[in-house]
Write a structure and sequence with these properties.
This protein is of the alpha/beta class and 289 residues long. About 10% of the residues have low confidence. Helix content is 44%, strand content 17%.
């Protein structure tokens, strides 16, 4: 214990010394700069959100916003095939979709991660909620172990049971600073809060299912789809009560043909074309609703 304390003091002593000198207005003599050299640290604007990714596309905030989530990253590689890692495959598809949407215009886009970094599951959907996303797309790839003949993409939405449980969890943790679908929950009873969150979750589930169906419809004959492509499960990233969300399993890294296709420029472009078309149709329908 004493050895650990000694090590900690060695690292902390310079920080404490410099901080004390700065606090009491003292300066540190530095060769060539004299005694007027002061260490200054620029603090971020208190009113600016910290840690949120940039938004690409139109500057008009009324334009719909899509948050694209490349699964895994950093120390978490995701599914691994021979020469392929899910985290890199997902990021390549996410970038291709972002670029496609930006080129076409009219839709704002943000990536939860634009490089090889790790994000916790709650952080990913938290980014979408903080940015006020109108749609959330999480991109992944699967693995079937040694069954390399398994192929095709699937689209997941939150299961009905998981949706109800997620709504209950959200209602339980909402506080006066939170809102759902733009409705402030401050000062409302637990019963009203539960009803509002449940209604929001139902509406969001319907929108998510509609979008998932559009992906499959637009992907027919262009993407390699699993025989049973529409599925539901309790994925953490799909639990937001007020952001329509899908998880897109793009294929199998354990299938060399799938992996090669999804990492090729042509395969990424096919994916981006289909997904961007489904996104635009979804937003067009929502605007006309």
């Amino acid at each position: 214990m004493w050895h650990r304390l000694q090590i900690a003091l060695i690292f902390l002593a310079p920080v404490v010394l410099i901080g004390g000198l700065y606090l009491f207005g003292l300066t540190i003599p530095v060769p060539l700069l004299g005694r007027q050299y002061v260490i200054r640290v620029k603090l971020p604007d208190a009113n600016r959100p910290i840690g949120l990714p940039p938004i690409a596309g139109p500057s008009d905030p009324s334009r719909p916003l899509v948050v694209i989530d490349a699964g895994h990253g950093g120390h978490d590689p995701g599914a691994v095939g021979e020469g392929f890692r899910e985290k890199a495959l997902a990021l390549g598809l996410a970038r291709a979709l972002r670029d496609q949407l930006v080129r076409q215009g009219g839709v704002r886009v943000a990536l939860t991660r634009a490089d090889d970094r790790f994000l916790a599951l709650d952080e990913r959907i938290g980014i979408a909620r903080q940015l006020g996303a109108d749609l959330f797309v999480s991109i992944h790839a699967d693995s079937a172990g040694e069954k390399d003949q398994v192929t095709g993409a699937s689209v997941y939405t939150l299961s009905n049971k998981a949706s109800s449980e997620a709504a209950a969890r959200v209602a339980a943790r909402e506080n006066s600073a939170d809102s759902v679908n733009g409705v402030q929950l401050a000062g409302r009873s637990d019963v009203v809060t539960n009803i509002l969150v449940d209604l929001a979750q139902r509406r969001t589930s319907e929108q998510s299912a509609t979008f998932a169906g559009l992906i499959v419809r637009e992907g027919q004959g262009i993407l390699t789809l699993h025989p049973d492509p529409l599925r539901s499960a309790d994925f953490v990233v799909l639990r937001a009560p007020d952001v329509p969300s899908v998880l897109y399993e793009s294929g199998f890294v354990s299938n060399p043909a799938d992996a090669a296709r999804l990492t090729s420029p042509a395969g990424q472009q096919r994916f981006a074309t289909v997904m961007s078309r489904a996104i635009r149709i979804f937003f067009a329908r929502e605007a006309g609703a």
